[in-house]
Amino acid sequence: MSITVKASLGKEKYYTEVIAGENTLITDEPVDKGGGNKGFNPFEILATSLASCTAATLRMYIDRKEWNIDTIHVEVELENFPLTKRAIFKRDITFEGMIPDEEQMKRLRTIADACPIHKILTNDIEILTKFS
């Protein structure tokens, strides 16, 4: 699977329009970093990718099992440690409606770890850059 996103940043400091297919979102930096705080910052976007993918992956599984779970909440905290080149994602998942039993929770943990973004973040990553 291949996806393409395009980011465009003009002269308004850090206000970036990102386009993926027919969808657009805005990223920015907080005011204390010189931005206008008009959108998510790049770290928030990264954490959002894990949170939203986890929720969607769990929803697919829960729906297939026909479990009566109304809402899935996924909170992701990202701690970045540039000096040690380490990042820690803390993911907290809660449910509304039916509360899964111990066996179901064990299966849901496996499903959460099977989300495609989780897999990408825990596999080898290579970034190839060219200037055109």
TrEMBL record:
This is OsmC family protein. Pfam families: OsmC. InterPro entries: KH_dom-like_a/b, OsmC/Ohr_fam, OsmC/Ohrsf. It comes from the Bacteria. It comes from Chryseobacterium cheonjiense.
